């Protein structure tokens, strides 16, 4: 009886809570935005604060939500499209958002959103996709990819140093961290000196019904085209073979990658959800050449029963089981990736699409929502 009363009080208290959600950008719909959408479905009346938003993304995925872009949204389109130029202003912008009326703030963060300032008695839970990559573990690679002169490189290093100091300080404003993988948990511990709860992100299963061995001999990549994703490694490797590679995605690295690609490689740009589902269904196997903090697209491929070849660092070590649902390769070198392709193809008859699909179910949306709801309830009542 007492437990029933306490449960009812907990439900009533939660219903009375005012909740806000904070995210960096709604300018594309990737893995982080899938997480955001599922969080928003748990709290449909909660406003979503973002630095910048693309109207088409909001209409398609968040049409019934109260999305509140920052003052950056008023800038000219050409400047909004180059929002990396505006990064220096973003820490101060998120700090000026007035969240004083909310009892619970949930930040979906890989950079700035965890830095919001809230009241002392407001609970701030941050779902961390990764600590700010370019300020921490990708710092040197980011500087190398800039391809700028000595003076501008020095300025960039100073800016990253500022971001690193701010990011470490901002992490102290979070009451509770949630990590999207054990790899991210380790980074949160190393860079922020904080413990975190592990809740794997939700994976879409749009159209993932028929699971069968594909006779199509094309490999698939679905990714944002940025240098750290290492799509260039995949292209270099496939340039040396007759294997077909299809790349779906867009980003700042697209033009360089198109110049690299030979005739057996197609770079299609962003595609509709329905078309992406078709490519997942028809592909031979999925390829993930970069180090991912989790790697949602690889799990999406598994929902179609497809094996995955992934770089054996980061989140892939938690999701790809060699010989069962794919293979791992140990170094980001063309000859090592080529060896991984050989191993996957030699073992292809031993992969069971049904087993692969079953493994992907542990990353379902229902599991994510239930775990997140349970965790939030425990922390809101404990503070």
TrEMBL record:
Gene3D superfamilies: Glycogen Phosphorylase B (3.40.50.2000)
Positions of the Glycosyl transferase family domain: 217-348
Domain Glycosyltransferase subfamily 4-like N-terminal: 30-205
Keyword terms: Transferase
SUPFAM superfamilies: UDP-Glycosyltransferase/glycogen phosphorylase
InterPro entries cross-referenced by the UniProt entry: Glyco_trans_1, Glyco_trans_4-like_N, Glycosyltransferase_grp1
GO MF term (any one): glycosyltransferase activity
UniProt name for this protein: Glycosyltransferase family 4 protein
């Amino acid at each position: 009886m007492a437990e029933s009363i306490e449960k009812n009080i907990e439900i009533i208290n939660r219903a009375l809570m005012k909740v806000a959600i904070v995210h960096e950008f709604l300018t594309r719909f990737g893995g982080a935005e899938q997480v955001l959408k599922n969080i928003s479905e748990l709290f449909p009346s909660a406003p979503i604060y973002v630095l910048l938003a693309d109207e088409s993304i909001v209409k398609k995925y968040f049409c019934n939500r109260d999305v509140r872009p920052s003052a950056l949204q008023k800038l000219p389109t050409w400047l909004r499209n180059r929002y990396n130029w505006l990064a220096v202003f973003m820490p101060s912008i998120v700090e000026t958002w007035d969240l004083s009326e909310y009892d619970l703030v949930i930040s979906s963060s890989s950079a700035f959103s965890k830095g919001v300032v809230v009241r002392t008695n407001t609970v701030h839970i941050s779902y961390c996709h990764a600590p700010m990559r370019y300020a921490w573990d990708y710092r040197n690679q980011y500087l190398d990819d800039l391809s700028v002169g000595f003076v501008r490189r020095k300025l960039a290093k100073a800016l990253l140093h500022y971001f690193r100091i701010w990011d470490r300080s901002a992490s102290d404003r979070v009451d509770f961290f949630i990590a999207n993988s054990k790899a991210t948990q380790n980074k949160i511990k190393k860079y922020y000196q904080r413990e975190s709860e592990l809740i794997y992100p939700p994976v879409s299963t749009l159209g993932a019904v028929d699971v069968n061995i594909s006779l199509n001999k094309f490999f698939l990549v679905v990714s944002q085209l940025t240098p750290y994703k290492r799509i260039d490694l995949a292209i270099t490797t496939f340039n040396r073979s007759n294997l077909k590679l299809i790349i779906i995605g867009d980003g700042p690295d697209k033009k360089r990658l198109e110049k690299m690609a030979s005739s057996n490689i197609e770079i299609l740009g962003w595609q509709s959800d329905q078309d992406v589902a078709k490519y997942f269904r028809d592909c031979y196997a999925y390829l993930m050449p970069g180090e991912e903090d989790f790697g949602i697209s690889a799990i999406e491929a598994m929902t179609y029963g497809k094996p995955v070849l992934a770089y054996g660092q980061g989140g892939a070590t938690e999701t790809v089981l060699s010989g069962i649902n794919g293979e791992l390769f140990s170094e980001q070198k063309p000859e090592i990736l080529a060896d991984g392709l050989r191993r996957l193809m030699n073992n292809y008859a031993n992969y069971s699409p049904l087993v692969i699909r079953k493994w992907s179910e542990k990353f379902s949306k229902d599991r994510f929502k239930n775990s997140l709801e349970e965790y939030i309830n425990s922390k809101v009542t404990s503070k």
